[in-house]
Design a protein that fits this description.
By secondary structure, this protein is α/β, with parallel strands linked by helices. The chain has 15 helices and eleven strands. Strands 1, 2, 3, 6, 7, 8, 9, 10 and 11 form a nine-stranded mixed beta sheet that branches. The protein has a two-stranded antiparallel ribbon with strand order 4-5. The radius of gyration is 22 Å and the shape is globular. The relative contact order is 0.17.
Length: 436
């Protein structure tokens, strides 16, 4: 989970100014680390004792490794993808968005309550979506975790503010020890075993993205394959990856991951997956290469559900004529544009691969003010907003922004009525029936 959009913008913009100060100040200290993986050894770097648990899909070798695991799962005797399996496959992608993850958490729990939430063959997550993903993957038994994390936490449950001096003499504005403690509370040996079994016995995939800051590229972690290792080291790495995927550069500290390449030990610096992509389904090249190699899914009906934990419309606000306000607004627009581009890429990939596209997002009708990071009131309202939409039957958009996907008045009125019922308030219809 990251910071709220407002807090994130503030930290990013102040961070830019601090970076300039750090460069100009002589004698400033730099935290020590092991050497980064040299450029010519990037493709060889592996986690010691856990080879093949991640994909560098920007490379040919990374794509081939992912295809090999895909083929092995499909050919597995006990694999979920076989002739006796259902004819429908469901995929779920959960985006970043900081405390706006309350929307996705509420939508999933409301979907459970409606009674038609499917089991997902593939779940992917970035940043706050990475924290939701393991629990969404294991199903409704873990809805209580989503509700607790996105309606009961406060800023002190996520980070400790280091202040400006912390940013100058360490690697971030905040210390995420509380967040790691929260992750550790729920990501335990039992959860790891369940995820590992789903991967090895049923070929269900859980993927999380982080950004390798040294190489400047995204890394996809096969969390099911990692979980199946079943060692204390794999549990620790599982937790660290979730922390890394939500580590907003500058705001939260990076996560250092030890690797081995050419028999030597190195260290990679990993940060928020949102630094390279806000949401992903699978590498676009994977589908094309799978067809070329005749790796064909047996499913006749494949549906992708994309949860964007953010608004898709630009919020109007008058920008003050000063450097930080202008920079903050520009960074905000860059993040929104990146998310829009990610949705477009997923849409085009699904159309090419004959997969249904279904998109959920925070609509322009959501009006609760976002006044601070991890404001419990804001998160509860947003959680119930997503929950109400799902309970009423979420009107999934069949295309990204720029296409015809507006909610009609009938659907919107149903949603508003459901939200009033959730709050225990009378609806316009019930008021008329009672003569009020």
């Amino acid at each position: 989970m990251g910071l709220s959009d407002m807090k994130m913008r503030a930290l990013q913009t102040v961070g830019l100014v601090v970076a300039v100060l750090v460069v100009t100040l002589s004698g400033c200290t730099t935290l020590s680390r092991k050497n980064a993986v040299p450029h010519d050894l990037q493709s060889q770097a592996e986690i010691e004792g856990m080879p093949g648990v991640r994909y560098k899909f920007f490379s040919h070798n990374g794509l081939e490794a992912m295809l090999a695991d895909l083929r092995a799962g499909m050919n597995s005797q006990d694999g979920f993808i076989n002739k006796s399996a259902t004819t429908r496959a469901n995929y779920l992608s959960i985006s970043g968005g900081g405390d706006n993850g309350a929307f996705g958490a509420g939508l999933l729990t409301g979907w459970t309550e409606r009674g038609d939430r499917p089991e997902f063959n593939l779940v992917t997550g970035v940043s706050t979506g990475a924290l939701i993903a393991p629990f969404a993957f294991l199903g409704s038994d873990y809805d209580y975790v989503l509700k607790r994390v996105y309606t009961e936490v406060s800023p002190t449950d996520v980070f400790i503010n280091n202040g400006l001096m912390g940013a100058l003499f360490s690697d971030s504005f905040a210390d995420t020890t509380p967040l790691y403690k929260l992750i550790t509370e729920y990501v335990n040996e039992d959860l790891l075993k369940k995820i590992g079994e789903e991967y090895t016995q049923r070929n269900r995939w859980l993927l999380v993205a982080s950004t390798n800051l040294d190489a400047g590229v995204p890394t996809l972690w096969n969390m099911g394959k990692l979980a199946s290792v079943g060692t204390p080291e794999s549990l620790q790495l599982f937790r660290k990856i979730l922390l890394a995927s939500s580590a907003i550069p500058g705001a939260f500290p990076p996560v250092m991951i030890d690797v081995v390449a050419d028999g030597k030990h190195y260290q990679e610096m990993h940060v928020d997956g949102g630094a390279t992509m806000e949401v992903f389904l699978y590498p676009s090249a994977l589908g094309a290469e799978a067809r070329r190699k005749n790796i064909v899914s047996p499913y006749r009906d494949r549906q992708a559900y994309i949860i964007r934990n953010a608004r898709l419309d630009s919020e109007w606000r008058e920008i003050e004529r000063n450097t930080l306000s202008i920079m903050g607004r520009a960074v905000d627009q860059l993040i929104q544009s990146q998310g829009y581009g990610d949705l477009q890429r997923i849409y085009l990939t699904t159309k090419r691969d004959h997969i249904g596209f279904n998109l959920a997002y925070i609509g322009p009708d959501f009006k609760e003010p976002h006044t601070g990071s991890f404001d419990r009131k804001y998160m509860n309202v947003l959680y119930n907003y997503g929950r109400g939409l799902a309970r009423a039957g979420y009107p999934w958009a069949q295309s990204p922004p720029g296409f015809n996907h507006a909610l009609n008045d009938d659907v919107r009125s149903q949603v508003n009525r459901q939200q009033l019922l959730l709050k225990g308030q009378p609806t316009p219809q019930s008021s008329r029936q009672s003569g009020k």
